[in-house]
Amino acid sequence: MITWISKGGAALCGLLLLGACEDGDAFLAGLTAPQTQAPTRQATMARGAVMLVPPQGYCFDNRALGQRFALMARCDVVSGTGSAAAPLSVITISLSPAAEGATLPTPENTATALGLSDVQRTTSRRNSVIFQASGPAPSEALDGRHWRGSALVGGQIMGVALYGPAGRPPIGREGRDILAEVIAGTKAVQ
Question: Which CATH class is domain 3-21+43-188?
Answer without folding.
Answer: alpha beta
